[in-house]
Design brief:
Structural class: mainly alpha
Number of strands: 2
Strand order of the largest sheet: 1-2
Strand content: under 5%
Order of helices and strands: HHEEHHHHHHHHHHHHHH
Shape: globular
Distance between the termini: 19 Å
Radius of gyration: 21 Å
Number of helices: 16
CATH architecture: Up-down Bundle
Low-confidence stretches: none
Largest sheet: 2 strands, antiparallel
CATH topology: Growth Hormone, Chain: A
Amino acid sequence: MKKVTNKVLWIFAVGQLGWSLLSGIVVNWLVYFYQPNAENIAAGQTLFIPQGKILFGLTVIGLIAAVGRLFDAVTDPWIASKSDRCTHKDGRRIPFMRWVAIPFGIVTVLMFVSPLQAESHINSLFLLIMSLLFYLCMTIYCTPYNALIPELGKTQKDRINLSTFISVTFFLGTAIAYLLPNIAAVFTPALGYVGALRATIGGMATFAVVCMLVPVFAIKEKDYADTKPSQTSAFKSLSKTFANKSFLTFVKSDILYWIALTIFQTGLPFYITSLMKLDAGMSFVLFAVMTGMSLVFYAPVNVLAKKLGKKKMVVSAFLFFSLVFFITAFSGKLGINGIANGLLISVLASIPMAVLGILPQAIVADIAESDAVQTHENREGMFYAARTFAFKLGQSAAMLIFTALAKIGTDGFGYRVSAVVAAVLCLIGGLVLLRYNEKKIFETLKP
């Protein structure tokens, strides 16, 4: 096999820029688009689906988002098994990514296009169908993509480097997604508020598709990865994966983190507009500050992880993020203006974001490689699918939690409660990870 160079790793990372941009559009703006606050409605946002609570205090958009994530989680093991067992001449991963990239972009745009230009259950049904297709496309691209991480990162150094590179492109993709209202504002006079948002999403999705196709055509999988297919069925492979005690400990912690992070990400535009009293366009500015500062810490994280180990740094990041979420809950009550409040949160959040953007992927790669050494079976795809299966269940719960909490009280009280819930869950996640036996994994991986 050919030696994996940093150039190859960067080419691979461009694919993450693409799918993270599409994911960022939906995660950050779907609720904002379909459950707008008073400021958005005054600016020209149309109500396309019924508002208010309909079932057990849950909203239509909350249920749709949660069902989509739940469907996404269920399809992960299925696609992972298909990928692990694939016998295509071009490898086990690349063929899936190549086939789905363009449909992935198209469905993302359709998520924000309603058949009727007024509040209707027909729009709700259409959105539900598009949501299921969106998450199916995401699974078909991302599960094989993630399975290539341990296959391209054969050494600890390569794994940490690759995790760093894809973290950079993930943040870039997410940052571009936060630019949505800023770019849309340029087209609003000509296209209207809703039309400008849709046109901007279309342009972003086109760019994302191009990025997702870069590794598909620039990397020959068989030059770098073991393409020998697994013979284990999907259910049996998933069972074996969750039977790995190290992985199970990690995933318990990870699911709590993703519930907390998804609540925070979904709520961020609302924290900015309702609690900090800033314009929605500040979402990008504050995220850019957070990302820029986070990138500053990437190099130290890369170096320290190789010296201190990943576990200590991830646990510390969980605890730090919990503090940031608590501070967010008191936005507008700290005696400082909105911009200063937002900058404070952005700067503080940049530290744990640097750690959690890099190291969890590398931890899964360690566990998958250790399991392969012990079982003599390559099931990298299923390990990443099992992880995404678990945290997407968490994201489903997060969408239900946030959209329900957002309706509590008045004057943004529900948004504050959501930030407190995120803080508590992140704190618990950090405590759970203390049980992860990193030393045992490293001993297995020794030559």
